[in-house]
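// run 5 | inverse folding | seed 20
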């Protein structure tokens, strides 16, 4: 039945469907996916909640401009193949964005249905359709367009690089992605844990892009294996999407003690190199009984929930503001609370403590209060004199952000950078060097998967226009 056959009143009466989840006390001991997806019957019911607005604001809230009402209407009609074709036409990685995209602050925040009650569960439906497509359309490759005769190199196989490559092959260009790690996926495989985004999902999304013509070469470090000028000699255009992988530390005494990790290293060891199966895998990771993760974003939540799954008796978040100011997704904070994560809010580390052997024994902190808003609009944390205290711990994970790795940019002195080392681009993603484009975290600084994908899609159109000039 089409949504056109259901009155707005009837649609408004349908409550938002809930996603099935693993039970908290079960999932905090395994690395299996927490969310279990909507069954088809509930997905169709949720799709009928969409009001099919003529001026759909939800689309403008999506960085890759998915035609949300169109694919949802196909779901409501039970035409899942059409829904999948519609979604895949707009979004290169829907099974990924359906899992990790912050829909609550983007498409769902603008949903008219949400003015009275809960917004349409766009993310749940995106995941449902994408998973249906992986199961039913997994062996199909799109008909290839006529070759343009142009070659494009993409540096990095994270969300920006994969999206750009997927769009560029639609234009008939030959696309080669160069990936530094041994497995494609970038932050999708090294940064996001299995319990939020299974590696098998990423692998299948990557394989679909490869079937459609995207070439990927792993173990290639641009800036070392090849320089940017060397690549430019072989390709008609380049898209740089190597992310922001340089860890930021707290700059407090004791950060060099044994047992202090950057979140980048901690998650890479566990996620990409399967340290949670050691000694079955070759990569070990320290297993602490009391683990403190410093930070309040999604990376901090991923790290602390990982520590809990690795057997920590106490997995603790230390964050300098209150819960209201946390940049992490509401769902991630909620899941962490359910799983028994301890939140030490309004605290700032001042020193890492260690025993005589140099192993971490505690984190000295000072309590904070919120003052006037800073440049981010959030109230600035101010130390409270005489409030120092110690959190006993044996591992500290620092998850307070990342910066651009200068390895690539150092080989291209003509590339204009900002004061943080990020590449400067124009509105189309073009850098200061003609024919070289950039997007994602190397431009923005650490941001979300979907914003990186939006950059990739924008740049792909601009690269195509550049190549056809």
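// decoded
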């Amino acid at each position: 039945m089409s949504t056109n056959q259901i009155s707005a009143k009837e649609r408004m009466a349908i409550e938002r469907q809930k996603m099935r989840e693993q039970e908290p006390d079960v999932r905090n001991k395994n690395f299996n996916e927490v969310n279990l997806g909507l069954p088809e019957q509930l997905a169709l019911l949720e799709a009928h909640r969409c009001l099919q607005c003529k001026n759909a604001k939800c689309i403008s809230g999506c960085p890759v401009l998915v035609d949300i009402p169109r694919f949802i209407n196909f779901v409501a009609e039970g035409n899942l193949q059409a829904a999948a074709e519609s979604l895949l036409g707009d979004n290169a990685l829907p099974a990924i964005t359906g899992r990790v995209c912050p829909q609550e602050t983007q498409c769902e925040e603008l949903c008219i249905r949400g003015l009275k009650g809960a917004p349409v569960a766009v993310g749940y439906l995106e995941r449902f359709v994408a998973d249906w497509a992986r199961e039913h359309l997994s062996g199909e490759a799109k008909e290839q367009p006529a070759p343009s005769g142009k070659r494009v190199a993409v540096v990095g196989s994270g969300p920006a690089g994969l999206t750009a490559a997927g769009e560029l092959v639609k234009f008939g260009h030959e696309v080669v992605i160069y990936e530094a790690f041994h497995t494609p996926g970038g932050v999708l495989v090294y940064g996001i844990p299995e319990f939020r985004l299974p590696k098998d999902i990423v692998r299948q999304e990557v394989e679909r892009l490869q079937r459609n013509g995207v070439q990927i070469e792993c173990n290639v470090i641009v800036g070392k294996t090849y320089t940017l000028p060397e690549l430019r000699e072989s390709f008609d255009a380049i898209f740089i999407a190597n992310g922001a992988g340089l860890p930021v530390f707290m700059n407090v005494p004791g950060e060099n003690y044994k047992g202090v990790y950057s979140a980048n290293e901690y998650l890479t060891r566990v996620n990409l190199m399967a340290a949670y199966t050691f000694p079955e895998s070759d990569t070990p990771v320290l297993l602490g009984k009391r683990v403190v993760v410093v930070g309040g974003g999604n990376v901090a939540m991923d790290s602390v929930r990982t520590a809990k799954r690795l057997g920590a008796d106490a997995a603790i978040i230390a964050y300098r503001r209150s819960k209201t100011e946390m940049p992490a997704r509401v769902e991630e904070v909620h899941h962490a609370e359910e799983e028994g994560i301890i939140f030490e809010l309004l605290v700032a580390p001042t020193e890492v403590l260690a025993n005589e052997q140099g192993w971490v024994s505690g984190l000295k902190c000072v309590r904070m209060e919120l003052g006037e808003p800073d440049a981010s609009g959030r109230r600035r944390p101010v130390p409270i004199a005489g409030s120092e205290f110690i959190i006993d711990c044996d591992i500290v994970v620092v998850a307070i952000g990342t910066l651009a790795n200068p390895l690539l940019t150092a080989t291209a002195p003509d590339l204009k950078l900002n004061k943080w080392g990020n590449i400067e681009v124009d509105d189309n993603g073009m850098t200061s060097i003609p024919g070289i484009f950039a997007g994602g975290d190397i431009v923005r600084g650490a941001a979300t998967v979907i914003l990186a994908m939006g950059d990739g899609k924008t740049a792909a159109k601009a690269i195509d226009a550049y190549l056809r000039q």
